[in-house]
Design goal:
heterodimer; A: about 220 residues; alpha/beta; Rossmann fold; Arc Repressor Mutant, subunit A; 2 domains; 10 helices; globular; B: about 575 residues; alpha+beta; Heat Shock Protein 90; 3 domains; five-stranded antiparallel β-sheet; five-stranded mixed β-sheet; 16 helices; 10 strands
Chain lengths: ~220, ~575
């Protein structure tokens, strides 16, 4: 799999490149700011671009803006945004603006190579990926109306995995359940929470994430 | 002492008038043909009436402007003394001889001095010198010292004690020069009076013109009489003289009316000001004094400014303002003991009358001082609040900068270190289990440091608060601290210091309790009202929150076990 890595912190950028190369990824470009990233994606057409959310020149959400730009110009290139922010708003924004083939991981995940590699593969397949820490925090929140109280422990687990961007098959593997059982859990959860199930997986992730954030 | 004198001197004026009237009536009655009044009683009555009105006006103004009143009384008495210049005057024959042409000069002096004790300009001084020189000097004393009544064939005339030597030709010449000068200064006085009226502000004109115009008319009439008598060298009592005399009486009466008008106006203002003091009593609301002044002075544009000890000017609300009047207005500063105390911004010319201004200061001083202290107090409070707000804002900005530095610097480096350790772990020999364990422990430690650092940075100042506002920040805080339960929160943006005060009030409440904390807010009536429910809140725990909320001019209080924070947020 061909990757481009954009991060202004050189030590981290090079380290990540080495780790990923060791895991069999092909790093075709490295850069330190959003403009260079866009040129590089244009020139080298990677499968996935790894983008730091905070980059020059703005040091705000430049990485997020660049991700949206990449997806607009090159629909075949997936985007993995790395962020130091735990809050879910950037993740939700990314999914709203980039319908598929996008992911949002916390930056301290980068040393967990397996997690990053898994996310990259899923993004290349057109799925979306949300960091489990962010999802678990959303699910653990106390709520004024307490809508998640109607779910069983198992159903909540399934809901979290859906929010992380996992397919029903992947959820089954994770929980040692059959695909059919997972299907019925998911439809049960959606019915209980009054959510509309979408055949497109990324739409369903956004629906769940939006639901979790807004209640 | 001077007050005592003030009290009895008007009565001296009245007594003098009675005496002079009696003498004049006796002289005119003795030989009406020789008088200016003539045979008709009405003419004499008119002369006496004009003099009496002048003295009455003088008595009315005695306290307010004593010099003016004395000059006016002098005019009235000298006006009657003109009738004494007659052979039948007996013992007052000589005073009549000297003073018969004195009244126009005295009237001119009174009018130029004015009710408000005007400083005399150089032309005015020259004019008065000529007036007295010609009227009392040439026509009075000058003619008297060379006039021997007996030698001139006036058998029944009393002797003239001023006589030096009989010189009829010189007397005639002196009389002619005196009359010519009289005509000249009369015209000059009329012009000066007109110029003064033209230059005056509308307010001053309103009350000075009624005195200046009839005074100028009376003096001009006398000037006409002087021209009329120029050939014979003295003012006599032919029909023309008599007609002019009657007209002069009318003009003098109008002078008295003009003085009375000015007095009535001043008194009305003073009554209004006195009423102001009664009405606003001990505790006027801010702005009430201003409204009353606007009402009683008839100027709705009036504004009051007060001066702080530091020298800055503030309005009644305590806001600092510049002492700059609008285009059609002007600012009058009021000084007490050499210090600016307050200033009145008003229509041009409104306070030109110094008596009005001094009435204002004496009558309304208590109310004004009260208002001034009130405004000063508000100004100081506002300065303090602004200073607190600046301190909080500065602290917030520093915390935000620190948050950025931690995120962008330390946290990134630590992540890179964790990655480097991971790379090392991938490259160690498979049989070096001890090194692998140590590196794994190091990596776990670094990752824990990253998590800890992120929490610290977030606690400093969440980026989401600055970027997306209170509702988003509290929602996000609830992702980190599950026991925080946000309820309804207004989605809009508020001033950043208000948002951060509400946010940190919530954070502080979370710190103070282990229970669930609910937070809800509503923006209404220009206020952001936040209610934080945290179980067992007490006032004593709220000091930090109150500091922050107070810095934005808000209040924080515990009510029914819930913290209520209200902050002004009108943008």
């Amino acid at each position: 799999m061909r990757l481009v890595i954009a991060d202004d912190e050189a030590l981290l950028r090079e380290g990540l490149a080495r780790v990923l190369e060791d895991s069999g990824f092909d790093i075709v470009g490295r850069c330190g700011d959003a403009e260079a990233l866009l040129r590089m994606v244009e020139a080298r057409q990677p499968d996935v671009a790894i983008v730091d959310i905070r980059m020059p020149p703005g040091h705000g959400d430049d990485g997020l803006v660049a991700a949206e730009e990449i997806r607009r110009r090159h629909p075949d290139v997936g985007v993995l945004v790395l962020s130091q922010y735990l809050d879910s708003r950037y993740a939700a924004r990314l999914l709203e603006e980039v319908p598929a083939g996008a992911g949002y991981l916390l930056k301290d995940r980068v040393s967990e190579v397996a997690v990053v590699a898994d996310a990259l593969r899923r993004i290349a397949d057109g799925d979306c990926v949300i960091d489990p820490t962010i999802v678990s925090r959303l699910v653990a929140r106390k709520r004024a109306r307490g809508p998640l109280d109607v779910l069983t422990e198992r159903e909540r687990e399934v809901l979290a995995l859906v929010a992380e961007g996992r397919s029903n098959g992947a959820i089954g593997e994770r929980l040692f359940l059959s695909r059919k059982t997972v299907d019925s859990y998911v439809s049960q959860v959606f019915t209980k929470l009054d959510l509309r199930e979408s055949p497109e997986q990324n739409r369903r992730v956004l629906a769940v994430l939006t639901y979790l954030r807004s209640t | 002492m001077s007050r005592l004198r003030d009290r009895w001197t008007p009565w001296v004026a009245v007594a003098a008038l009675v005496l002079v009237v009696a003498v004049t009536v006796a002289i005119v009655r003795r030989e009406p043909e020789l008088s200016l009044a003539g045979r008709r009683d009405a003419a004499l009555a008119t002369e006496i009436a004009a003099a009496s009105l002048l003295v009455a006006a003088a008595v009315a103004t005695w306290r307010a402007s004593t010099v003016f009143a004395m000059l006016l009384t002098g005019t009235a008495l000298a006006w009657l003394a003109t009738e004494w210049n007659t052979p039948v005057a007996g013992p007052v024959f000589t005073p009549g001889l000297v003073l018969y042409a004195a009244w126009p000069a005295l009237l001119a002096a009174a009018a130029l001095h004015g009710l408000d004790a005007q400083r005399l300009s150089k032309p005015a001084v020259v004019l008065l010198t000529v007036a007295f020189g010609s009227g009392v000097g040439l026509l009075g004393v000058g003619s008297a010292v060379v006039f021997d009544p007996a030698a001139q064939g006036c058998g029944e005339c009393p002797t003239n004690p001023l006589l030096v030597a009989d010189a009829p030709r010189l007397g005639h010449a002196l009389g002619q020069i005196g009359l010519a000068l009289t005509a000249a200064w009369a015209v000059a006085f009329a012009l000066l009076a007109l110029a003064r009226i033209a230059r005056a502000s509308p307010a001053r004109r309103r009350w000075s013109a009624p005195v200046l115009v009839p005074a100028a008319a009376a003096v001009l009439l006398w000037g006409v009489d002087a021209v009329h008598g120029l050939e014979r060298g003295f003012v006599s009592n032919d029909p023309t003289d008599r007609t002019l005399r009657l007209a002069e009486a009318g003009a003098l009466a109008l002078v008295a009316v003009g003085v009375a008008l000015a007095r009535v106006r001043a008194r009305r203002t003073r009554r209004a000001l006195a009423q102001l003091v009664l009405d606003i009593g001990a505790a006027p609301m801010p702005g009430e004094v201003r409204a009353w002044l606007a009402d009683s002075l008839g100027d709705p544009t009036i504004a009051l400014l007060y001066r702080l000890e530091g020298g800055e000017w503030i309005d009644a609300e305590g806001r600092e303002t510049a002492l700059s009047p609008p285009a059609e207005g002007e600012a009058t500063r009021v000084r007490v003991a050499g210090q600016d105390v307050f200033a009145v911004i008003h229509r041009r010319g409104l306070l030109d009358d110094p008596t009005l201004l001094s009435e204002l200061v004496t009558t309304a001083s208590l109310a004004l001082e009260h208002d001034r202290l009130h405004a000063a107090c508000r100004a100081r409070l506002e300065q303090l609040r602004a200073s607190r707000a600046r301190i909080v804002a500065e602290a917030d900005s520093q915390r935000r900068q620190l948050e950025r530095d931690l995120h962008d610097g330390a946290q990134q480096r630590l992540v890179a270190v964790a990655l480097t350790i991971r790379l090392a772990r991938l490259r160690i020999a498979p049989d070096d289990a001890e090194l692998e364990t140590r590196l794994a422990a190091a990596e776990a430690g670094v990752r824990a440091a990253v998590v800890a650092l992120r929490d610290v940075a977030h606690g400093l100042f969440p980026a989401v608060l600055a970027e997306e506002g209170l509702a988003a920040a509290l929602e996000e805080l609830s992702e980190q601290v599950p026991r925080l339960v946000p309820r309804s929160l207004p989605p809009g943006r508020f001033p950043s210091e208000v948002e951060s005060a509400a946010y940190f009030a919530t954070v502080e409440s979370l710190r103070l309790t282990q229970h669930d904390v609910t937070v809800e807010a509503v923006a209404e009536e220009g206020e952001l009202r936040v209610v934080i429910g945290a179980g067992n809140q007490t006032d004593s725990m709220m000091l930090q929150i109150q500091d922050r909320v107070g810095a934005v001019g808000g209040t924080a209080a515990v009510c029914d076990g819930r913290l209520r924070v209200e902050m002004p947020c009108a943008s």
